[in-house]
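Problem statement: downstream parser choked on a complex file, so we are re-checking the raw output for the adenosine-5'-diphosphate run. The parser issue turned out to be on our end (a line-ending mismatch), but while we're here, posting the original submission so the record is complete.
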Amino acid sequence: MIEQSYSATRAAARVALVTCAELPELDPDDQSLVPALAAAGITAVPAVWDDPAVDWSAFDLAVVRNTWDYPKRRSEFTAWAGSVPQLANAADVIAWNTDKRYLRQLADAGIPIVPTTWIEPGDPVHLDTGDTAAAEIVVKPAVSVGSVDTGRYRLPEQAGLATAHIERLQAAGRLVMVQPYLADVDTAGETALLFIAGRYSHAIRKGAILTGPDEGVETLYQEETITPRTPSPAEHALAERVLAALPFDRASLLYARVDLLPAASGDPVVIEVELTEPSLFLTTAADAPDRLAAAIADRLPAPRAEHPGSA
Ligand SMILES: Nc1ncnc2c1ncn2[C@@H]1O[C@H](COP(=O)(O)OP(=O)(O)O)[C@@H](O)[C@H]1O
Ligand SMILES: [Mg+2]
């Protein structure tokens, strides 16, 4: 449950934890922030990003958390971000990070990313079905959350299904990404490294998600299997390089998540960098909710009134 003690904290800072209409009470993992913020004298209130009744100027800070319904209306979302007076992460970060074209910029800076072919809405589709070994590919949109609209295809048998998926995304005006399926994810999983205020906090292993072609199911996200993980030195070093290569001061980022897959060589490569609405897996690391609450407290614009009621 969300703790809301308006009367006891009238003088305390108020922070919005920004979510979507389908999760008005926040994702359970992010609900762990509410008591952590309360312990710091901060009242946290869930707020739905596209709810016209919310007065964003009434909050000292709005923290983006579970806004997982924006991929089909990204421009509305980035315009909303630009309209919120105090937002973390900031609107320019969100504009940059909600379209995976940023991966090209990171690749140009020397960061290894999953090899990607980009297909614009008007481009002809020529899948390289390979005339030697069979291959597996992933088709996904460049504006994406939660593995929605993402599919895995065996070539050449499923080339028709893959092409249909690409054309479906193109018809919706979406930039398409085609990648080799990095099959080591099936055993090693994906590694996500979490940073709070630019400093490494914790990491998790995410099990492989894709089982086959996209079935066009309208969900907010696909189920994930998450366990704590200690990243390898190579993973840790790559995530640090990513933070250093971002076009933002890393300390200015309230949160950052770097997601890595193992390439066939065994070396980690970047699948995505999440600065917008990442699950932070706060409940997988004992101190993570308190660390994030402290970083939020640091960002509050004005000194806060005393709050004699808090322990
Ligand atoms: N090239 C790939 N190889 C293996 N698995 C992939 C690949 N691309 C995506 N996936 C799987 O699909 C999931 C979602 O893809 P991702 O690029 O992270 O998009 P989203 O932004 O929707 O999370 C990943 O967590 C991973 O399990
Ligand atoms: Mg992902």
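For whoever reads this later: The chain has two domains: 13-97+291-299, 102-275.
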